[in-house]
Target: receptor protein-tyrosine kinase
Amino acid sequence: PPTAPLHLISNVNETSVNLEWSTPLSSGGRQDLSYNVVCKRCGPEGTRCQPCGNGVHFSPQQLSLRATKVSINDLQAHTNYTFEIWAVNGVSQQSPGPEQAVSVTVTTNQAAPSPVNSIQAKDITRHTISLAWQQPEKANGVILEYEVKYYEKDQNERSYRIIKTSSRNTDIKGLTPLTSYVFHVRARTAAGYGEFSAPFEFMTNSVPAPIIGDGTNSTVLLVSVVGSVVLLLILISAFVISRRRSKYSKAKQDADEEKHLHQGVRIYVDPFTYEDPNQAVRQFAKEIDASCIKIEKVIGIGEFGEVCSGRLKMPGKREICVAIKTLKAGYTDKQRRDFLSEASIMGQFDHPNIIHLEGVVTKCKPVMIITEYMENGSLDAFLRKNDGRFTVIQLVGILRGIASGMKYLSDMSYVHRDLAARNILVNSNLVCKVSDFGMSRVLEDDPEAAYTTRGGKIPIRWTAPEAIAYRKFTSASDVWSYGIVMWEVMSYGERPYWDMSNQDVIKAIDEGYRLPPPMDCPVALHQLMLDCWQRERGDRPKFGQIVNMLDKLIRNPNSLKRTGGETTRPSTTLLEPVSPELSSALGSVEDWLQAIGMERYSDNFTAAGYTSPEAVVHMTQEDMGRIGISSAAHQNKILTSVQGMLSQMQQIQGRMVPV
Ligand code: AMP
Model:
């Protein structure tokens, strides 16, 4: 064996130690000399030593060193260490002895804390992000305070702001809505500041979204945010509505506005128009290296394989939670194309209410689609689990988010065709995002597929009559489906048309029957559903108008107070005639006119004696003219709503209502 290394020199720098030595006098006459480092942490005066353990790092390595130096990092501050450098060769094992090692004992210095490892956003609203983080792994002393540095992602990093706090959380207030911010946190001890953490990025909300915390305090949190939700929506709506004063009857004005909105809006490209659909995947979806993905558990079954949750850590970016859709083994070329087409579609969208694509893995198996993770899963199951727990304003907030996502899709000329609560995902902030962009192609190309989509029937209960009858899928048929989603939301995940058969549903719809308002559903919302279920697709509102309408309802919570009265969950049979309490159940004529944006005619109705809903529901177009409503558009609008009111009355009698 070799003799011991010579001239061991140590150099302590805070919690790192650099060691250097000279080669031994004798290498044992062999060429295979190398060095091993032994690290021991000791008590005072080198007593009670124990191995350093895993947290200490050696550079370039601890064993089989060829060079005569090593750097040892991540030691504890103010601690005694003994390091032994062993010279070894191929025969050292035969007769190991202390004469082959040299050692040194050092004391590390005071050191600043190590960086904070991760920052979480516990609560996000339009203007505030509540952050929380863990203490640094190596505090190296008592932490006196934390410093949070933040700036708008798109701004120059030098224009940052700093907040100091002694706790491990803070609220960053006064932020701009729908804006990404970058945050870094560092800790300070008596030894000074540690390094800033890596950047963590969070975006403020677009729609005031109440937070669902985990566990028991969620309802309290939800309720506490509602006030600000209403206020903020008032502000947005005030702006929008000051420019657009009535509901969707002002067709021309809206059409002009929509034309204007279309300018500069990208139009969606169908990946199947590409000769090689793989090219669409390359164009619209980022290829992710499989080594960046950690699959954690199975959370669902998709059409093509398992859906898992896991983590994605891209180089230079913070780790995020993701959902991972996998393509099961043994797929055909066509299945692979269909599977990846969802990513090519999703990758074209960028909106807070549309599920966000992180990327795809196509270069190795299994083929995967990686999207943002939505903690609360699909909306239908989420609502069933939380039956009755939300306020009407919260439910309208959910509907508003979905409508906003659908407006974005329709502006991009994308027709979803399978809009249903089961295809909406909900994150921990109660933000709803439209997902499931897989099936459009199946219906489009295959005449046989009108009644069989992936793995099942066309979703009859959610689909507009013209789409069922002759496959006329448009944004207007998506609006029909949206009306059904509204009904699902307001009934906390009830199955539309309950246990009726698909054939009975088609027949009932054709005969003019529509779903009644769910229990406690505001009349104004049921009216909006009925508008979405207009037989003539041109008479249905556009998504932009639905968003405005919902904003208006949130802005005026009184308009949501009026419900169908003491209705229980409806049964399938028609019931007895109108109840005497009908007027109070339906509210005043004045409220109704206000809810439909026709309050300007309040006096006309009163003067002509139409003071109760019972009187109003019998009005004809001539009656309208007679009481001074001359605009045909307004007459139509009021008559449509009168039909809704009639349906309300019938709903109080029974379950399905003809309109
Ligand atoms: P899909 O094939 O898109 O219908 O997904 C099947 C199921 O997996 C859904 O019903 C959800 O429960 C779950 N899932 C899909 N995507 C996500 C996601 N991004 N976050 C959380 N759960 C998801």
Notes: The first strand starts at residue 6 and ends at 13. The pocket of adenosine monophosphate is lined by residues 299-300, 302-303, 307, 323, 355, 371-374, 377-378, 425, 435-436 (CB under 6 Å). The CA atoms of residues 3 and 394 lie 77 Å apart.
